[in-house]
Amino acid sequence: MARRYDNRKLYYWLMGSCLALIGMAWFVVRLFSIPAAVGMSAVAAVLPPIAVIVANWGHDKR
Fold this sequence. Notes:
Blueprint: H1 2-27, H2 34-56
Helix pairs in contact: 1-2
Transmembrane segments: 12-32, 38-58
InterPro entries: DUF3099
Pfam family, one: DUF3099
């Protein structure tokens, strides 16, 4: 159960960072640098699939 808690905790951290990146890119960074905001949005778009893979890592495939 400890491993599942660690996976869930990492999942929440990744999804939280995804939301933070999108929020910062759309509301703050775009005022100063549009290419940086687009880059942040691209990184944020890649994080949810990685978070799902991490959350399911190590589970039995029955």
